[in-house]
Amino acid sequence: MKDPPRPDRAEAAEHHLANPYRGSAVLWRIHAVSVLLVAPQVVVWTFTLVWLMTERNWSAASAGLLVTAAQFLGAAGRIAVGRWSDIVRSRMRPIRTIALAAAASMALLALTDWLDSPISVAMVVIASVITVSDNGLAFTAIAEIAGPFWSGRALGTQNTSQLLTAGVAPPVIGALIGAAGYSAAFAICAVFPLIAIPLVPVAADQLLDNRD
Length: 212
Hints:
single chain; mainly alpha; 9 helices; 212 residues
């Protein structure tokens, strides 16, 4: 492995050297959106196996197979979303659409679980795929916006914020599940993507064009 080529600092364009966090909230907004979107992702991936076994009465082997299938579908979904993003020449508009889809899928999962419907199994797979599909877009946008001299720090901030959320969400949601059940937990997790939608900095796509 080797680092990609980058200009010498003495020859770099001024906007590549400037602190991208100063005078702009774009990166902070992407970090915030990513934290809000990772919460339902972590919850689905953490509790699906147990939910299938305790609420849907699946065997451990069958539940494990479904989780594995959902992971493969999620990986394919991320690739497809990356391709979609390249085609439409936008990182933020797809993220905003994914946030809406994540909210809808988590809400439908909550409803179908509350109704004790077998459709809830399909919904948990759909939610598993949708809630992971934005990750690559956010990381790509951050690297593109931060530029070659700030991308390491910006990506470190992104990763740290998401990992902190991934560490906090399971015990908090687990306590909620114990107190109010899975349906309530899934419903609350539908709120986070809704909050994220207006925070997505769609204008950042224009910023990327200007930095080229």
